[in-house]
Automatic annotation (TrEMBL):
Residues 179-255 form the HTH araC/xylS-type domain. Pfam families: DUF6597, HTH_18. Keywords: DNA-binding, Transcription, Transcription regulation. This is Helix-turn-helix domain-containing protein.
Length: 263
């Protein structure tokens, strides 16, 4: 569960270990947008902040396959030092069909795949448990997902359109109004595929634009980052970044940037 207080000692997940990702092989790309692994540092456990991004992930962690549902605010899971997590990030519109579960039922939850009733969970866990290391588990994870897609429904195309609009900063209601989708239909589809309403998805993707700017902008001050990301002003950015991460923009900028920047 996320803390509502600022906690400047928390580390963003990308700073708490070695994170790497890759594009899935062609058979998986309709259903998954990234395969990734995260090897945590050894040593004393750190408070790690997992921040919302609008996605749902399938994880292999501590010998189990689990679904990480979409988050509204930062989560602070207890992670074993030195552990490696292998994951597959669902493409927008793919998770609800794959899991046969609306994502509104999974918001803020980490749920064993077997508890959702996925028929191959126990078999896949046994096969992954025989792997001798993270790289072998990552390779097998991808192959198991390729086996699994033979029986899965096609991802919803409208969800990809919703996500792309939210990601770009354009009002999501624009393209759907032109397509004849009512506000109520849009809200229902958004809750089904992302776990929350359109406005929350738009805010989360704006927060992710802020994170990307922190990673890529060498000299831009925080006020400039706020406007470039789509916030009204720096105060607006500070409120929303705190809500989604429990951290201040300056702390996040310090964690993600390579060089010193004006604030």
């Amino acid at each position: 569960m996320a803390s509502k207080k600022r906690n400047d000692t928390a580390l963003l997940a990308a700073r708490a270990g070695r994170y790497g990702e890759c594009t899935p092989p062609p058979p998986l790309r309709r259903y998954f947008c990234r395969l990734w692994s995260h090897a945590l540092h050894d040593g004393p456990p750190a408070m790690v902040a997992i921040v919302p991004d609008g996605y749902c992930d399938l994880l292999w962690i501590d010998g189990r396959l689990v679904v990480a549902g979409p988050d509204r605010t930062a989560a602070f899971p207890v992670l074993r030092p030195g552990a490696t997590v292998v994951g597959a990030r669902f493409a927008p519109g793919a998770a609800a069909a794959w899991l046969k579960t609306p994502l509104s039922a999974l918001v803020g939850r980490l749920v064993p795949l077997a508890d959702i009733g996925w028929k191959d969970a126990a078999e896949f866990e046994a096969r992954l448990g025989d792997c001798r290391g993270p790289s072998a588990a990552m390779a097998l994870f991808g192959r198991l997902l390729e086996e699994a897609i033979r029986d899965e429904d096609e991802p919803a195309r409208d969800a990809a359109i919703i996500f792309a609009a939210a990601d770009s900063g354009r009002p999501v209601s624009g393209p759907f109004g032109r397509l004849g989708m009512s506000e109520r239909q849009l809200r229902r589809r958004c809750h089904h595929h992302f776990g929350y309403g359109v406005k929350t998805l738009e805010r989360i993707r704006r927060f992710q634009r802020f994170l990307n700017l922190c990673r890529s902008s060498d000299t831009m001050p925080l006020a400039g980052i706020a406007l470039e990301a789509g916030f009204t002003d720096q105060a607006h950015m500070t409120r929303e970044v705190g809500e989604f991460s429990s951290l201040t923009p300056a702390v996040i900028l310090g964690q993600l940037s390579i060089s010193k920047r004006p604030g």
